[in-house]
Amino acid sequence: MPGLAGATVVTRTEGDKDKLALWYDKPARQWVEALPVGNGRLGAMVYGRPLQERLQLNEDTLWAGGPYRFDNPGFKAALPRVRALIDEGKFIEARDLVAKEMIAQPATQMPYGAAGDLLFDFHGVDGAQGFRRTLDLDSAIATTRFASGAVRHVREVFSSAPDQVIVLHLQATGGTLDFDVGYRHPREVKYGDGTFDVTKARHDVPAGAPWDVSEDLAEAQRPASLSIRADGPRALLVEGRNADHAGVKGALRYAVRVMALGDGKVDVDGDRLRVRGAREVTLLIGAATSFVSPRDIDGDPVKAVRERVDAAARKPYARLRADHVQAHRALFGRLSLRLGRADAGTAPTDARIAAVPQTDDASLATLAALYLQYGRYLLISSSRPGSQPANLQGIWNEGINPPWGSKYTININTEMNYWPAEAANLAPCVEPLVKMVEELAVTGAAVARESWGARGWVAHHNTDLWRAAAPIDGPNWGMWPCGGAWLCKTLWDHYEYNPDDAYLARIYPALKGAAMFFVDVLVEDPKGRGLVTSPSLSPENPHHPDVAVCAGPAMDRQIVRDLFAWTLAAHEKLRDPDADFRKAVEAKRARLAPDRIGAQGQLQEWLDDWDAQAPDQHHRHVSHLYAVYPSEQINVRDTPDLIAAAKVSLNTRGDMSTGWATAWRLALWARMGDGEHAYSILRGLLAPERTYPNMFDAHPPFQIDGNFGGAAGILEMLVQSWGGEIRILPALPRAWPEGGVHGVRARGGIEVDLDWVGGRATRVALRGKPGQAAKVRIGERLVTVKLDASGRARVALT
């Protein structure tokens, strides 16, 4: 898979590095104030508390349950009856039959879990003067600094990809460290009701002195399966089992191992690790489960954590740190962004977020640049080769009952997680999603065959660690057969941004299988409007009160049209001899029902003109605008009438919604070239109603897709790559009159460096394959540029 080779690492000045940090003048009192570290597989939330540090741990395979299938056995028999009811306009009856005979039994999947907490109780710490905690995005290190009397404390935390451990380094200058470390089992967490209310921030915290906050190690009931014991003279070993859920027994074993190395006395006292009289200590934390693959759960987590921690213990701290930073910067350093000339200011990050509604454009520009880089940091930290893909919360989840199960919601959210990956020059981060699609194609083939009576494979609107593919939740959410097809867009985007025949050959079976499913299941619209999916829905949006089930919604037609086009292109490129398949796909694609403009001038969300009577005119999903973004079927160059209709739809929906839905609106207006509208939405996304103090996106509660969608939208304002062109400053707002972005990736494997002053490009440089040609559009001017023998070119600006 194309990855690190050939990528340019941007050289940063010290001033640039200063702007690449979140910082705070007080510790975290709750989760959305803590700072995330991660290596793709292993994550932690760092609270930075002087008296009691808390590291909340996550391991990306620690999900509930085990291998399972919940397919409804009545699906295939009910399918023709449901289609007939939809054709007759009996949508309520169709909905009820779907609920009874087609939705999985039980109608759920497995939730992602947490790996518990490590609580560090410090003795002799009295107050915290000069307190400062930071998350340096450039080094991926969370640092806490403060003084307690004459003792200066420095604590650094990072999650190392090369060594596969979390590292906590503690140093006391002018004194010593005395502390105990204990493990707290994962707990249920109380969340807000998730109701959208723009008048309330969702991160209010109790008053009181923040530095002395501490939590009870024993507040969670320990299950009988949990074991905490010494594992050598300097290490603590935790062993446990994952949770049961919905009748599926927990089938995974997990282990956490903590080792302390330092110049003081270290021993194990019962279920606590104890350190006394040390000036400098390094804690090494490993976590693993017995998960090997969705059908193999026979790994040895204890062996894994012992090997990883012991190997890390053979390195001095300086080497652990240097190896971690080098591996992180190899990805993070591939793109830089400067918006405006204003410095980052002197206010802490949480204060800057709280002040967004009153912030001037110059200060907001630096916050937007930080937000983009934070999104890149989060993707690197939650999705690296060898890990699971980023889920609804990346890898950071506080409890065993995460919002929406913290699953892979594939009717928008998982796809949005990867929207910035290619343009933001993080192609290697896509690998976990590619692997997930390959695994999902296996389970999805069984659902296609046994439920739909079709070849190929299908996935509906959610999946999990076990790659479940049947429809869940209920007919108004789950009866959507295009989740797998939409995931294929991320695979195809990766190919277009990183052309490679070997990779194309790898993903072709997934593309072909997804396309084969729709060749088999598309049906004739009874009113003669073309081929449609049935039953389906426009994701999560009812077209009449409490009913979403329908035939042929716009999004399905758009996704299938794209899928067929990608598959045909791959078929030709790879010279697949299956001519009958090619002819079938071509014939079906030609007969897909086209997009339609409704009576209000809007782009119709459904095949029938129901938009004006749909119950929720401000619905968070804008599914029928998939063709605008992330697709390019509807665009400002080729389909101006449909773009005008899309704007009518989007204006009706409104600018503010849940976090991720606000980010989608940002990206849509940017793609349509309206920089002022996009900027207005970005300001709302960065405000405290949609951004928590630690810069996590507030759905509410936290969902990471808003961070990723927002990052993609910012880049879309500056550089676009579609329709065979690279577009320079296509949606630049007046608020960003000057700036620069270096290392943006464009389709065709080209990197772009761009500077502008007075809203006009002053430098556009390209890097790519020697001799490669690229079409570059700057305003109304389209030029063709050929890269020289070194793979570089400058675009003439006059």
UniProtKB/TrEMBL annotation:
The keyword Membrane does not apply. It comes from the Bacteria. Residues 317-718 form the Glycosyl hydrolase family 95 catalytic domain. Keywords: Hydrolase. Pfam families: Glyco_hyd_65N_2, Glyco_hydro_95_C, Glyco_hydro_95_cat. One of its GO terms (biological process) is carbohydrate metabolic process. GO terms for molecular function: alpha-L-fucosidase activity. Residues 22-292 form the Glycosyl hydrolase family 95 N-terminal domain. Residues 720-783 form the Alpha fucosidase A-like C-terminal domain. This is Glycoside hydrolase family 95 protein.
